[in-house]
Structure formats: structure tokens, C-alpha cells
Amino acid sequence: MGGCVISEYPIDVKAKKEYFPTRNRLISGLSLGTLVIEANFRSGTSITARYCIEQNRKLFCIPNSIENKNSTGTNNLIKKGANLVTKIEDITQAIGEISDKVQIETVTISEKNRSLEVEKNTNLLGKEYNNLSDKELIIYNNLKNRPKFADEIASSTGFSITDVNIILSMLELENYIVKLSTNMYKVKKR
């Protein structure tokens, strides 16, 4: 695999908290859009969202409860015109409109995951899981045996890490999974 390091600082400069806004400006500038899940009114995430808007990128926000102190920034961004996200298609459709050069990845369910599709179709998981998309169900089932990191899920499902992170965020918001302090995800007991 290839890679690249982009920085405005020399290689020997140590990471410091005050450098995060500069880093996030670069990240938002390289991205087609930014998804904000939670943000305080004044936070690093709000700074990144501002850069995103200044750079004419798409800004996406997942709405949160008004009682959650980490939602004031997110809900304010939605009020100011950020794209409200309630499902993955809200992002893929908007990204597809940005440029005709953008190709939205479509993934067919591999033979390895075919049994998961059958499981969904036969309702073995129960009615509450019928509203999950095929990708969401595959990722959910991927977490049933043990907690996993996002890159492990991407590797075992064949989905892009971008898709996995978006779907994990949506599953977490819908209370199907929880994120552990170790940045691993696990199925939430229902």
C-alpha cells in the first residue's frame, strides 16, 4: 500500500494541540466533504467545519438531542445550512452531485457474506433489524462474535474504510453498536 504525508511543519516537529486546526484545514481541503457527528459550540470540530465551508466543501451533520452538551455545535451547523444526515444515502447523493468525476463505490455482497444476506431475508435477527441496509447488516453481524476495529471490519468485509466508518457512525447513533474507549466497536445488548 502507498501513502503520503502532508504537513506545513518540518518532519521533526512534535505534535501539539495548537497544530490540530492547521492539520484539520488540510484534511478538510483534501476531502470532498466533512461529516460532523458531535461538536460543542466552540470546539476543534467547529473549526474544521468552518474550514470546510470556507473551502467550498460539503458539510454533513448528524442531528443530536438538544439535551446533549456535545450537540450544540452540530445542531447549530445544521441550523446554518449544513446537510442533515440520517442515512448513508444523504452523503452519497450529495457527494455524487459535487462532480461528475466522483464515482460512488458500489459493493456487491461477496459469497463470504452471502449467508448474512440470507440471515436478513429470513428475519433471523427479528423485525427491529429489517430497516438495516445490506451493508449495515453485514457490519453489524461482523461485530457479533467480538469487538473489532474499523480497519478489521473493512478487511473482513471488503468495504472501503470510508464506508465502514460512516456505517459504524450510523449504527452507533441508532443504538445497534457502541464504541469502546479503545476505539473498537461492539454490538450493543438489546
Concise structural overview:
With 190 residues, the protein is mostly helical.
SSE blueprint:
Layout: H1 20-30, E1 33-36, H2 44-54, E2 58-61, H3 72-79, E3 83-84, H4 88-98, H5 111-121, H6 134-142, H7 150-157, H8 161-173, E4 177-179, E5 185-187
Parallel strand pairs: 1-2, 2-3
Antiparallel strand pairs: 4-5
Helix pairs in contact: 1-2, 5-6, 6-8, 7-8
N- to C-terminal distance: 39 Å
Rg calculated over all Cα atoms:
18 Å
Work out the count of structural domains. 2
The residue-averaged pLDDT reads 78
Range of helix content: 40-55%
Mass-distribution shape: globular
Uncertain runs: 100-109, 114-125
The biggest sheet amounts to: 3 strands, parallel
Could you please say which CATH topology of the largest domain applies here?
Rossmann fold
CATH architectural designation of the largest domain? 3-Layer(aba) Sandwich
Please give the count of helices. Answer: 8
Instruction: Please state how the strands of the largest beta sheet are arranged side by side.
Output: 1-2-3
β-strand amount = 5-15%
Query: Could you give the order of the helices and strands?
Result: HEHEHEHHHHHEE
Structural class: mainly alpha
Name of the CATH first level of the largest domain: Alpha Beta
Tally the beta strands: 5
Describe the structure.
The chain is mainly α and 190 residues long. It folds into 2 domains: 17-98, Rossmann fold, CATH 3.40.50.450; 111-187, Arc Repressor Mutant, subunit A, CATH 1.10.10. Helices cover 43% and strands 8% of the residues. The strands form 2 sheets. The protein has a 3-stranded parallel beta sheet, sandwiched between helices. α6 (134-142) packs across α8 (161-173).
